[in-house]
């Protein structure tokens, strides 16, 4: 198994891409902390991983809260005695609309979930990684931070911030043997945010417009992203840091 006994936290893992990542990493032997803002989703995913023979523990926490993030990261120590990988997957977007009509509270939430969560996880995970002699962050950003679409300006900006923050952290934390990488998925209509990205009901017409911008002709799946996360979490990626893997069917080319 490629991740045998590694202790890994996956935020926003009660559904969508985060769920896919948690399941895939557990299949490869990881001990997974399944985090979500909604306890019910996290508990379902953890229970199903356990039923399939994996190891997972549900921990409800708000990734925008300093106290909650501290408690979440300490839960890995309590359950596994260490933390090897922190996957910052939790994300949020405002609806596809004019940049001038996005409310201030929506802007604040976008940056809190997509950027502040990385700041908070860095504050609390880095001291642990340093004590252990190393560790790994995997931040789920987006193609929106590389090749932005109109109507999602503030979301695009938050993901661009996540990308450059990850690169900067990789340079700063490298001497501590701490790796920091990004995954940039293209749109996945099944994440629960599809209608927000599209600006309305996911009609075939809307989906076709999005799909036409992806050279490989389909949307990303949770498994696509999970396989990239598996590689970055594994020892196969031991010398890879500061990179962004576009899981996008060549959308960003």
What does the model show?
With 253 residues, the chain is an alpha/beta fold. It has eight helices and seven strands. The chain has a seven-stranded parallel sheet with strand order 3-2-1-4-5-6-7, with helices on both faces. Helix 1 links the parallel strand 1 and strand 2 (31-36). The longest helix has 29 residues, at 104-132. The chain is globular. The mean pLDDT is 97.
Per CATH, the superfamily is: NAD(P)-binding Rossmann-like Domain
Tell me the span between the first and last alpha carbons: 33 Å
- Biggest sheet statistics: 7 strands, parallel
Number of helices: 8
Domain count: 1
Q: What would the principal axes of the Cα set say about the shape?
A: globular
- The low-confidence parts are none
Strand content: 15-25%
Structural class: alpha/beta
Q: Provide the residue-averaged pLDDT.
A: 97
Strand order of the largest sheet: 3-2-1-4-5-6-7
CATH class: Alpha Beta
* Rg over CA atoms: 17 Å
Q: What is the element string, with H for helices and E for strands? A: EHEHEHEHEHEHHHE
Number of strands: 7
Tell me which oligomeric state these chains represent. single chain
Helix content: 40-55%
CATH topology: Rossmann fold
CATH second-level architecture: 3-Layer(aba) Sandwich
